[in-house]
């Protein structure tokens, strides 16, 4: 098998900074990612950023169907050539943020996809929240990302990394950190260490939420200014037309002191507060 650098030389391809391109060159890491994804023959896998198609071919050897989504138009001819022998691969030239994850024609409307990808660090947050918004169509995701982003996803209450992603993903998913990947495993070499995480999506959240939009707004408002107390952040917004006195009473009723900060609250406490606000 030709190396990533050799393929790039053969096709005269130079990684583009504007796309945040950094090609994974370590085949053993690719194999570990595919193993972590635990792909089954009946499953459909959506790959984010197929690059040169090396890991795509590994996925195709295990999956029933692969949708390879690649934004870089100049890589499409390479992917077509390299994946020609894999009849179960559909190649799509598109920004993953515009991909809707809907079942394909002939598939059951209840069928869910599994996602695998090395996501560009510059747009990792939009991609992650795009996946979260489409969670009803997704069973799990195995993603390579900047270690700091993985830290925020996996963070627990009371830690510096705990914030909006920790709470919103924590309500709907179980996240495990699977691998730490050194910069030397990429070309060009990034300035940061990477992590591979597995995101398993719950059928139903462990803590019921009456109004998902209100829950999301509450979490974003609570963490808007981290140096402020939870109460001071929340009182800046009109909650269902009720004043800050009602908010004080509600926090007291839930056992949340006025001086508490957002990073001290558990996901369950955010859910309880959201539900209480929706019932006012």
TrEMBL record:
A GO MF label: RNA binding
Cited HAMAP family: 16SrRNA_methyltr_A (MF_00607)
Protein's UniProt keywords contain Nucleotide-binding: no
Compartment list: Cytoplasm
InterPro entries found in the cross-reference section: KsgA/Erm, rRNA_Ade_diMease-like_C, rRNA_Ade_Mease_Trfase_CS, rRNA_Ade_methylase_Trfase_N, rRNA_adenine_dimethylase, SAM-dependent_MTases_sf
UniProt superkingdom: Bacteria
Record domain Ribosomal RNA adenine methylase transferase N-terminal: where: 29-203
Family: Belongs to the class I-like SAM-binding methyltransferase superfamily. rRNA adenine N(6)-methyltransferase family. RsmA subfamily.
Name recorded for this polypeptide: Ribosomal RNA small subunit methyltransferase A
Binding site for S-adenosyl-L-methionine: 24, 49, 70, 95, 118
Protein EC: 2.1.1.182
Enzymatic reactions: adenosine(1518)/adenosine(1519) in 16S rRNA + 4 S-adenosyl-L-methionine = N(6)-dimethyladenosine(1518)/N(6)-dimethyladenosine(1519) in 16S rRNA + 4 S-adenosyl-L-homocysteine + 4 H(+)
Role noted for this protein: Specifically dimethylates two adjacent adenosines (A1518 and A1519) in the loop of a conserved hairpin near the 3'-end of 16S rRNA in the 30S particle. May play a critical role in biogenesis of 30S subunits.
Keyword Glycoprotein set for record: no
Keywords, comma-separated and alphabetical: Cytoplasm, Methyltransferase, RNA-binding, rRNA processing, S-adenosyl-L-methionine, Transferase
Pfam families associated with the record: RrnaAD (PF00398)
Enzyme class: transferase
A cellular component annotation (GO) from this entry: cytosol
């Amino acid at each position: 098998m030709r190396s990533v650098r050799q393929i790039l030389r053969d096709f005269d391809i130079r990684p583009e900074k504007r796309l945040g391109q950094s090609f994974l060159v370590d085949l053993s890491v690719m194999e570990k990612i595919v193993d972590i994804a635990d792909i089954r023959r009946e499953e459909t896998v959506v790959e984010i950023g197929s690059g040169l198609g090396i890991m795509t071919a590994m996925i195709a050897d295990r999956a029933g169907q692969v949708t390879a989504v690649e934004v870089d138009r100049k890589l499409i001819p390479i992917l077509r050539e390299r994946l020609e022998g894999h009849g179960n691969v559909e190649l799509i030239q598109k920004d993953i943020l515009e991909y809707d994850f809907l079942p394909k024609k002939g598939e059951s409307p209840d069928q869910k996809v599994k996602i695998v990808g090395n996501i560009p660090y510059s747009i990792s947050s939009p991609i992650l929240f795009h996946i979260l918004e489409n969670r009803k169509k997704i069973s799990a995701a195995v993603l390579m990302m900047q270690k700091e982003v993985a830290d925020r996803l996996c963070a627990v209450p009371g830690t510096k990394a705990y914030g909006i992603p920790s709470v919103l993903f924590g309500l709907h998913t179980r996240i495990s950190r699977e691998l730490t990947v050194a910069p030397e495993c990429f070309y060009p070499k990034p300035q940061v260490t990477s992590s591979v995480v597995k995101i398993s999506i719950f059928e139903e959240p462990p803590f019921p939420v009456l109004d998902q939009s209100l829950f999301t707004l509450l979490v974003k408002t609570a963490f808007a200014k981290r140096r402020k107390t939870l109460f001071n952040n929340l009182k800046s917004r009109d909650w269902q037309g009720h004043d800050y006195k009602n908010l004080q009473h509600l926090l007291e009723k839930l056992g949340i002191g006025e001086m508490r900060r957002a990073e001290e609250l558990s996901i369950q406490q955010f859910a309880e507060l959201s539900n209480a606000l929706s019932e006012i």
